[in-house]
Amino acid sequence: MSQSYNxxxxxxxxxxxxxxxxxxxxxxxxxxxxxxxxxLFTHIAVLSTSIPASAGETxxxxxxxxxxxxxxxxxxxxxxxxxxxxxxxxxxAVFHILNGLRLLFVDLGIGLESQDKSFYAxxxxxxxxxxxxxxxxIAGAF
Length: 142
Ligand code: HEM
Known about the structure:
By secondary structure, the protein is mostly helical. The protein has one domain (21-138): 3 helical TM bundles of succinate and fumarate reductases. It is built from five helices and two strands, in the order ααββααα. A hairpin with a 2-residue loop joins β1 (58-61) and β2 (64-67). The longest helix is centred in the middle third of the chain and has 28 residues, at 80-107. It is elongated, with a radius of gyration of 21 Å. Protoporphyrin IX containing FE (HEM) binds at residues 29-30, 33-34, 36-37, 40, 96-97, 100-101, 103-104. GO terms for molecular function: metal ion binding. Pfam families: Sdh_cyt (PF01127).
């Protein structure tokens, strides 16, 4: 016989203070997954400028004639906001990968008793890797 459980309005974000570590892990994983999908389209749009570039299309960047692909990349990388978004993208990707691997282990029955700890470990490791990446991403931005 089937049983039903009253889970309460756990989806109600007004009750976010009551969310468990597992709920946060679920929210962050969905969020980061869909941010990565969104980035993929941006990435393809930028890389697509290599097609007109290969046909010889050029733009003027800071008084110099450059191919449209190089011009797009150089102009984007000259913006501080793009460098900051890149750090955010790394954080999102690292968290999604670490938490995703953690979930795959959980699916295999490994680490079932320490799911909260492994989630916190994913967060801390993501933070450490993100902070360590900042000098690389910001280099030459000023
Ligand atoms: C090593 C890399 C990756 C690993 C280990 C990984 C792992 C996972 C796992 C295990 C899930 C299912 C979570 C669950 O049980 O609910 C998931 C969901 C998801 N992943 Fe990844 N993933 C990776 C890379 C990516 C990339 C590159 C993208 C996007 C371009 C992506 C987009 C998504 C999305 C959108 C979901 C949520 C799907 C839904 O709403 O149900 N993932 N990922």
